[in-house]
Amino acid sequence: MESGGRPSLGQFILLGTSSVVTAVLYSVYRQKAQVAQELKGAKRIHLGEDLKNILSEAPGKCVPYAVIEGAVRSVKETLNSQFVENCKGVIQRLTLQEHKMVWNRTTHLWNDCSKIIHQRTNTVPFDLVPHEDSVAVAVRVLKPLDSHDLGLETVYEKFHPSVQSFTDVIGHYISGERPKGIQETEEMLKVGATLTGVGELVLDSSSVRLQPPKQGMRYYLSSQDFDGLLQRQEASVRLWKVLTLVFGFASCAALCFILRKRYLQRQERQRLRQMEKEFQEHEARLLSGAKPEDRESLKSACVVCLSSFKSCVFLECGHVCSCTECYRALPEPKRCPVCRQEIARVIPLYNS
């Protein structure tokens, strides 16, 4: 603690940082909890013959947040994989990712770094249909790329290592970047794959559409079933809650530490004032009971041994209260017997 009982700069930084981190974590936790609560409140609708009847009876022929599960079926054409034969889908994502080692000048280590240098996504219109072929109902999926959990499957992945000459290696060491290679990936949403859609379900004329919700709730197209999707979201909520509690406890601990130090400092100041008051009262009683010729010698006596004369000036407090022998006998760190402030240096006092 600094003089005056004020928290130090380091303690302020610790308390401020932990408080800011706690606030950020709590904000993320609240968002995750809200998403999980919205998922729990979503209406589960079976993809069957009575789907249109359910929507026609709903207000505005719309269910604002609904869950529906079905198989993927293309409307017209399909997308063929560029690398795998007989692999057809309705969404195709091609990615080229560069991998390299970058020299960190702070840690003096090579760190692995990756960067997407090219990505292209192709889509065609598709429906969600029941797994039973006898049921003639379909839900058209709109804006699939706006979903938060697009259930794409990796169908092809290959790493192309970079070929380097000796001069390239020397140049890379000088520049601080060492290319490792290019990773080529193809992801697809296959025809026939099971998909769980969470969004706004609308009956328009004779067709049913699944589209992003208008109320700002999250839009999902996941390869997981709804229970798995909900469990994963709840696990994320629990994780952020634990992190919030940990940093919140750290903030409370830092605050309690600062308050405790201030309280101890205040108690120490009160104790020192009381000691000084008692010393002055004791000195006044000695002076009042002493003979006139002894009063001057009592005023100049060391406050520790009361036998030798004061011969030291303590800095930075400036008190003249001790003889040289008693100063040397003070325990480390040496403090002024009057104010208990740490003694930085001592100046000898010579009486003429």
UniProtKB/TrEMBL annotation:
Residues 302-340 form the RING-type domain. One of its GO terms (biological process) is protein ubiquitination. It is a multi-pass membrane protein. One of its GO terms (cellular component) is mitochondrial outer membrane. InterPro entries: MDM2_MDM4_MUL1, MUL1-like, Znf_RING, Znf_RING/FYVE/PHD. PROSITE patterns: ZF_RING_2 (PS50089). Coiled coil: none annotated. It is an enzyme of class 2 (transferase). Its EC number is 2.3.2.27. Pfam families: GIDE, zf-C3HC4_3. The keyword ATP-binding does not apply. Pathway: Protein modification; protein ubiquitination. It catalyses: S-ubiquitinyl-[E2 ubiquitin-conjugating enzyme]-L-cysteine + [acceptor protein]-L-lysine = [E2 ubiquitin-conjugating enzyme]-L-cysteine + N(6)-ubiquitinyl-[acceptor protein]-L-lysine. Keywords: Ligase, Membrane, Metal-binding, Mitochondrion, Mitochondrion outer membrane, Transferase, Transmembrane, Transmembrane helix, Ubl conjugation pathway, Zinc, Zinc-finger. The keyword Metal-binding applies. GO terms for molecular function: ligase activity; ubiquitin protein ligase activity; zinc ion binding. Gene3D superfamilies: Zinc/RING finger domain, C3HC4 (zinc finger) (3.30.40.10). The chain crosses the membrane at residues 239-259. It is found in: Mitochondrion outer membrane. Homooligomer. Interacts with MAP3K7/TAK1. Interacts with UBC9. Interacts with and sumoylates DNM1L. Interacts with MAVS. Interacts with TP53 (via N-terminus); the interaction leads to ubiquitination and proteasomal degradation of TP53. This is Mitochondrial ubiquitin ligase activator of NFKB 1.
